[in-house]
Amino acid sequence: DWTPVVKYVCELEGDREKWAEKEEKLRNKVKQVLKCDVSKSSVLGPVSLPQADCLLSTLCLEAACKDLTSYRAALKNISSLLKPGGHLVMMTVLKETYYIVGQKRFSCLYLEKESVVEALSEAGFEVQCVTVMPKRSESTFSDFEAVQSLVACKQPAE
Ligand SMILES: C[S@@+](CC[C@H](N)C(=O)[O-])C[C@H]1O[C@@H](n2cnc3c(N)ncnc32)[C@H](O)[C@@H]1O
């Protein structure tokens, strides 16, 4: 569901119409929705897809992983979906320990910018750009401190 992210970005950018248009355009491009488990080496289970040019992951790995070891493993697992030279576009919350959706509270892996960048490098990515946007106002649904967006290129195997 893209809505929370798109809404969040709208709040940051203050340009709701532009982002609603982008959301619609993106939704129209979706051909198929598949189940994915980033903790498995075959993240798509029995489904096999050609490696992609670009992979987008938003606010997912820190919610899916309980520690840095499983976070590093998850990066390696999702990397298998990308062509060498392909790009991972990833949005991560920093210094978050929980978030709330409706009445439910979820735990989150506490991450700092450096640990994400190091984990990417160890998983065979070259980080090409990183932007950190500090939280602008207090949140009632999470204790995150910032949102980090980055682009990383999968390096060819040596
Ligand atoms: C904070 S939500 C983010 C949802 C959405 N990507 C977004 O940006 O709004 C975290 C997501 O991680 C997913 N998740 C949790 N464990 C996972 C796993 N092992 N593999 C893949 N996704 C997982 C949850 O289902 C949930 O949709």
From TrEMBL:
Instruction: Cite a single GO BP annotation.
Output: methylation
User: From the Swiss-Prot or TrEMBL record, what is one GO molecular function term?
Assistant: N-methyltransferase activity
Q: Does this entry carry the keyword rRNA-binding?
A: no
Q: Name one GO cellular component term.
A: cytosol
User: Which keywords fit this entry according to its UniProt record?
Assistant: Methyltransferase, S-adenosyl-L-methionine, Transferase
Is Cell membrane one of the keywords UniProt gives this record? no
Q: Which family does it belong to?
A: Belongs to the class I-like SAM-binding methyltransferase superfamily. NNMT/PNMT/TEMT family.
Tell me which PANTHER family the record gives: NICOTINAMIDE N-METHYLTRANSFERASE, NNMT/PNMT/TEMT FAMILY MEMBER
What protein name is recorded for this chain?
Nicotinamide N-methyltransferase
The organism of origin for this protein? Pelodiscus sinensis
